[in-house]
Amino acid sequence: MLVLDRTFSVAPMMDWTTRDYRALARTLTRRALLYTEMVTTGAILHGRPRERFLGYSDVEHPLALQLGGSDPGELAECAAIAETWGYDEVNLNVGCPSDRVQNNLIGACLMAHPDKVAAAVRAMREAVSIPVTVKCRIGIDAQDEDKDLEHFIATVADAGCQVFILHARKAWLEGLSPKQNRDVPPLNYGRVHRLKANRPELHIGINGGITTLETCREQLDHVDSVMVGREAYQNPWLLAGVDEAFFGAHGPASSRHAAAVAFRPYIARRLEEGAKLNHVTRHLLGLFQGQPGGRRFRRHLSENAHRSGAGLTVFDDALALVPQREAALVD
């Protein structure tokens, strides 16, 4: 079985961690583990072309596919497909609080069904040789964050899962929207730390509200890995410090400007494949956050990349609004 260094990873985020964002991330970090958006078993088994849901560029490795589903047979089949497609890990979503996925017994609601999650994990592990992992919350609704979480982890671990990434908040499936569930329930990092202390044989990762590499370092005193979500998307330059901070290696980008230039050939390829410019460049909008010319860069792309026939000239013109010398100096 392939052993991945998952010390630092970027969280799966719907509509955000697309293949285009992940390619951008690779201009900033070679070592961070990247995750796809959640892909449901139904999309993989019945959607066509399958490339739409599973396609990626080789540069994205190490790369994990996050699956949404609850039927063990379907999840096992999808895990096997993921391995055939070359993914390095399959992760089961047990954390999404959306009403839409709840109706299909997907996401955080599965925390109330540890036996079902265990059956799914067991089936997936029997179907593949790549790691099968679980991303979950510390509980849902009125669950006890100690007793119920311990029972969930123990049940799923007994099925062979050795890696759990915990969003350190409860999900309130009744009374809060998915957006509110990202911020309103209080963070409880201590609960995840205690889980690691109680189950040292398991790999325990932490996620939720982490916005700086310094905070990541502090968390690694208590857990095995850190997963960063929205900050890694809205401020992608954060990733430029990951390789040196956690892997002892130089990152690929010397400046934000250099990262944007390195991303240009990828944009050109995607345009040749028929992608729309704004679908690719929307992931770049936060790259020059707070930098000279950053606002003009963002505005130019926002106002022009969606236009019919928009191509590389729009990107080049936007990048020209960022003073290259200043961009390098402030980094």
UniProtKB/TrEMBL annotation:
Its EC number is 1.3.1.91. The record marks 93, 179, 182, 295, 298 as: Interacts with tRNA. Its cofactor is FMN. Keywords: Flavoprotein, FMN, NADP, Nucleotide-binding, Oxidoreductase, RNA-binding, tRNA processing, tRNA-binding. One of its GO terms (molecular function) is tRNA-dihydrouridine20 synthase activity. The keyword Metal-binding does not apply. CDD domains: DUS_like_FMN. It catalyses: 5,6-dihydrouridine(20a) in tRNA + NAD(+) = uridine(20a) in tRNA + NADH + H(+); 5,6-dihydrouridine(20a) in tRNA + NADP(+) = uridine(20a) in tRNA + NADPH + H(+); 5,6-dihydrouridine(20) in tRNA + NAD(+) = uridine(20) in tRNA + NADH + H(+); 5,6-dihydrouridine(20) in tRNA + NADP(+) = uridine(20) in tRNA + NADPH + H(+). The keyword Cytoplasm does not apply. The active site is at 96 (proton donor). InterPro entries: Aldolase_TIM, DUS-like_FMN-bd, DUS_fam, DusA, tRNA_hU_synthase_CS. Residues 10-310 form the DUS-like FMN-binding domain. FMN binds at residues 12-14, 66, 135, 167, 207-209, 229-230. Catalyzes the synthesis of 5,6-dihydrouridine (D), a modified base found in the D-loop of most tRNAs, via the reduction of the C5-C6 double bond in target uridines. Specifically modifies U20 and U20a in tRNAs. Belongs to the Dus family. DusA subfamily. Belongs to the dus family. HAMAP family: DusA_subfam (MF_02041). PANTHER family: FMN-LINKED OXIDOREDUCTASES SUPERFAMILY PROTEIN (PTHR42907:SF1). This is tRNA-dihydrouridine(20/20a) synthase. The gene is dusA.
